Amino acid sequence: MGLPLEAAEAPAEPSPSAAASEVVLESVSGQVELSSRISPVDACSRAQGQRPAGAVVTDMGYERLSEPGEPRLFHCRVSWSTAADAQPTRRPILFGALPVDGIEP
Questions:
Q1: Cβ count near 73 (within 10 Å)
Q2: pTM score > 0.90 for this model?
Q3: What is residue 54's predicted lDDT score, i.e. its pLDDT?
Q4: How do residues 21-60 score in pLDDT, each as one tens digit?
Q5: Do 27 and 81 meet the contact criterion of CB atoms below 8 Å apart?
Q6: Number of domains in the chain
Q7: Residue 66: band (very low, low, confident or very high) from pLDDT cuts 50, 70, 90
Q8: Which of 14, 57, 91, 104 has a C-alpha 20 to 30 A away from that of 7?
């Protein structure tokens, strides 16, 4: 005759909601740079679209890379952060920190 079978309680596993509340997300920051022959608005809109979901735009600027008489080319730089305390730039796309056509903003 074999050993008697006994029911044993399974070890407690954390619930999915408890495990999710203990996950600490690390903040990330980065920069996206894109160029467009259409306009600075197009370049900056597409650059903003490349940032991660939920990331805050912390700085943005654009410049015209072509000389008058050449095919136009606009370059936009968007800096972003996922940090909880990230300060948004609150600047419209058209007012960047980089000079445009040699004119300081």
A1: 15
A2: no
A3: 87
A4: 555 568 889 999 999 999 888 898 889 888 888 899 999 8
A5: yes
A6: 1
A7: confident
A8: 14
Domain assignment present for 12: no
| DSSP track, the chain | --PPP---PPPP---HHHHHHH--PPP-EEEEEEEESS-HHHHHHHHHHTSPTTPEEEEEEEEE-SPTTSPP-EEEEEEEE--TTPPP----TT--SS-BTTB--
> Please, which residues bridge with residue 78 across strands?
32, 60
Rounded to whole angstroms, how far apart are CA atoms 81 and 86? 6
Judge whether 99 lies within some domain: no
pLDDT of residue 100: 46
- Please report whether residue 4 resides in a domain: no
- What CA–CA distance (Å, rounded) separates 94 from 20? 40
